[in-house]
Design a protein that fits this description.
By secondary structure, the protein is α/β, with parallel strands linked by helices. The protein is built from 27 helices and 18 strands. Helices cover about 45% and strands about 10% of the residues. The structure holds 1,4-dihydronicotinamide adenine dinucleotide. Its EC number is 1.1.1.35, 4.2.1.17, 5.3.3.8.
Length: about 725
């Protein structure tokens, strides 16, 4: 290193408050950075400063754990970034590994930036409900222009060094030693004027149509955010950079940062982040962590190539697992093969230019067959035939006879009893539920359901499969609908009851989409296919030929029942696949839902037939009846030991049911609403609808309220019986 260059080592291992040697906490680290800079400034022998990270990483930003504490981070870092910028000696950032969040903001304070070709940069604060609070929203647009800065700040995306160079975010990229290159540059620029390199002094580059651009961008951000505040406030901070001088823009950034901190959304996202990590750490009752079975030469059979089978096969090929796809006859096989090929072609296009190639034309990696004899060699079967217990049992009996002894037998049922399916085999310890979500090649959730006899190694293998498929595996117990669908039943039931009482599919969907769901219950039902539930209800004797003669239209087993979904199915309205369901679509398989006047007429006729008085139902009632009945079921699930904790339920909802991340999951949401309020509302609706048992508050919820609105992390300690797990 040249004697003229002073080096400030900026510890990179993620948090500012996890600096192992000298510094133990954020403020101390910031103090050390400030002291280093002041020392360099005061020392006449130092002519330039280079800031780099340790161990090949510049900085991954702040520790997510610190985000609930308002005094931390951006707000404290901002003045130091200004201090760097105001240095009379050139300061060069040497960016290796990552420069994210506060790390990139420090680099923006430097006068020059040199990056390694493999480095990545970004301002990901938005993804945890915040905004870059160390003046990053003001400096970045001045450096790379408003459109590119808005894109980075409102999405939180990471960009590679090559793109950073094109945008002008870095001055130079190098393949070899970044630190040496930064020092070389520092020495070269000694004595050159620093004014033009100080971003706070630069104007934001003008756009010919800035107003119109900003208006359009704001509409887009709002539409995508659905109640998630951070993207919109990120937008407002960048907008301030275009309208105000730097110092005022920084003040606005700080105000907006405080709004986000106090909104509770950052805490919800932080909770969601740690909840996902918690569900991976699943252990046997004795606390023994399971050893995962490593399978590198697994041959997997996907049985049934319908909606789910197609997505599952696509995910397996993407995970580089050899697959045999089996169908009942050639007609279904060809249809399924065609659909899988379309999906894989699409995936291959998305992956173009990346390191991984999809090898799906190779029969050793992907085979389609109707020959059951191929089952001899597979290590793992995922069955995805129709939701019909008799059919599933017949298939599992066959599998048990044909598959090799160690093969794991998985069923992708939505709700059926794993133990009953396992009873058709001679190896119930190897039978397990693997509940994928539609579309299975997109959705991250995999609910893993163990039965009475399922072995720990079968669970571990299913968890490993989830990991290999880059999915979030959540282990749950066996009950009708497991966790996700069991909580969904009362939610959908309420949605349909609301239609009976006077609402419309699009009104109910709107309320839940405004809450933040990607799609409301009726759009979701159209996407999944109404026939799946219909088949299940027929199997339960709730509708169809096994319904006892003389049954009341709107009552089953002494409870309120709505035949509306059955009536739609009887008319062939299965949703998107038939082009008609709760909405109408442009064609069978179409995706654009349009409100259907036929449905409106049908609903009013239905109300007349059953003498139901149509009433106006407000948004609050729609939201509360749908969400609180779902949450109520969650408390019942926890009390029965079906899931290990509220985090498991929340991870399931965040990854499989489109629950808005900024609301942390249904159980977290309940804790933010306050359990006494949830209980009071359930009591009110239950009194108004005494024939709806799912509105009756769960005993566990009542207990948690009685002990004084216990905080979420203590809930499980109030249960006398904890999850049996195995
Ligand atoms: P689907 O009706 O689209 O496909 C079922 C496929 O199984 C058909 O292609 C059929 O030919 C095939 N099949 C039937 N009997 C067979 C046999 N004996 N041998 C080989 N193949 C056979 O149904 P979908 O929607 O794919 O559902 C499959 C399973 O996944 C069901 O248990 C369902 O409950 C479950 N599921 C469905 C979800 C959805 O959103 N559609 C979500 C999660 C689970």
């Amino acid at each position: 290193m040249s004697q003229d260059t002073f080096c400030v080592v900026f510890h990179a291992q993620i948090p500012f408050d996890r600096i192992p040697h000298q510094f133990k906490s954020g403020p101390m680290f910031l103090q050390a950075l400030e002291d280093g800079l002041k020392k360099a400034d005061a020392d006449p022998s130092v002519k330039a400063v280079m800031i780099c990270g340790e161990n090949g990483k510049f900085s991954a930003g702040a520790d997510i754990r610190g985000f609930s504490s308002p005094k931390t981070l951006g707000v404290a870092l901002g003045p130091i970034v200004s201090l760097i910028e105001s240095s009379e000696k050139p300061v060069v950032a040497a960016i290796e590994g990552v420069a994210l969040g506060g790390g990139l903001e420090v680099a923006l304070g430097c006068h020059y930036r040199v990056a390694h070709a493999k480095a990545r940069m970004g301002l990901p604060e938005v993804t945890i409900g915040l905004l870059p609070g160390a003046e990053g929203t003001q400096r970045l647009p001045r450096l790379i222009g408003v459109p590119a800065a808005l894109d980075m700040i409102t999405t939180g995306k990471h960009i590679p060094a090559t793109e950073a160079l094109k945008l002008g975010l870095v001055d130079e990229i190098v393949e070899e030693n970044t630190i040496e290159a930064a020092i070389r540059l520092a020495n070269k620029v000694i004595g050159q004027p620093l004014g033009p390199r100080r971003l706070s002094l630069k104007p934001v580059p003008k756009l010919p149509n800035m107003e119109a651009f900003l208006q359009e961008a704001q509409v887009k951000v709002k539409r995508q955010a659905r109640g998630f505040l951070a993207p919109e406030l990120c937008f407002q901070a960048v907008q301030a950079a275009t309208q105000r001088p730097f110092a005022e823009g920084v003040r606005r950034e700080r105000e907006l940062f405080q709004v986000l901190l106090s909104s509770g959304q950052a805490q919800a996202l932080q909770y969601a982040f740690f909840a996902e990590r918690a569900v991976h750490r699943w252990a046997t009752p004795g606390g023994i962590n399971l050893l995962f079975i490593i399978f590198d030469s697994i041959l997997l059979l996907s049985l049934g190539l319908g909606t789910m089978g197609q997505g599952i096969v696509t995910s397996l090929v993407k995970a580089n697992i050899p697959v045999v796809a089996l169908e009942q006859n050639l007609e279904y096989l060809n249809k399924g093969r065609k659909a899988v090929m379309v999906l894989l072609e699409r995936e291959a296009k998305k992956m173009e230019g990346g390191a991984q190639k999809l090898d799906f034309h190779n029969p050793a990696r992907l085979q389609f067959t109707v020959d059951f004899n191929l089952l001899h060699d597979v290590d793992l079967v995922i069955e995805a035939v129709f939701e019909n217990m008799a059919l599933k049992k017949e298939i599992f009996h066959k599998l048990s006879n044909i598959c090799k002894p160690g093969a794991l037998l998985c069923t992708n049922t939505s709700a059926l009893d794993i133990d009953e399916i396992a009873s058709a085999t001679s190896r119930p310890q190897q039978v397990i539920g693997t509940h994928f979500f539609s579309p299975a090649h997109v959705m991250r959730l995999l609910e893993i359901i163990y039965g009475r006899h399922t072995s720990p190694s079968a669970i571990a293998t299913a968890m490993q499969l989830a990991k290999d498929m880059k999915k979030v595996g959540v282990v749950v117990g066996n009950c009708f609908g497991f966790v996700g669908n069991r909580m969904m039943f009362p939610y959908v039931e309420q949605a349909v009851f609301l239609l009976e009482e006077g609402s419309r599919p699009e009104a109910v969907d709107q309320v839940l989409e405004d809450f933040g769901f990607k799609i409301g219950p009726f759009r979701m039902s159209d996407l999944a296919g109404l026939d799946v539930g219909w088949r299940s209800r027929k199997g339960q004797g709730l509708t169809g030929p096994s319904l006892p003669a003389g049954s009341s239209a709107r009552q089953r087993r002494g409870q309120r029942y709505s035949p509306l979904p059955d009536l739609l199915c009887e008319r062939g309205r299965f949703g998107q696949k038939t082009g008609k369901g709760w909405y109408q679509y442009e064609r069978a398989g179409g995706r654009t839902a349009t409100p259907d006047p036929w449905i409106h007429g049908f609903l009013s006729q239905y109300r007349d037939t059953h003498r139901i008085e149509t009433r106006y139902i407000d948004q609050e009632e729609i939201l509360e009846r749908c969400l609180f009945s779902l949450i109520n079921e969650g408390f019942a699930i926890l009390a029965e030991g079906i899931a290990s904790g509220p985090e498991h339920l929340d991870v399931i909802y965040l990854n499989g049911y489109g629950w808005p991340k900024h609301r942390g999951g249904p159980m977290f949401y309940a804790s933010t609403v306050g359990l006494p309020r949830v209980l009071a509302k359930l009591q009110k609706y239950s009194e108004a609808h005494p024939d709806v048992p799912k509105l009756r508050p769960s005993a566990f919820l009542k207990k948690l309220v009685a002990v004084g609105n216990a905080p979420l992390k203590e809930w499980m300690s109030y249960l006398s019986r904890q999850s049996p797990k195995l």
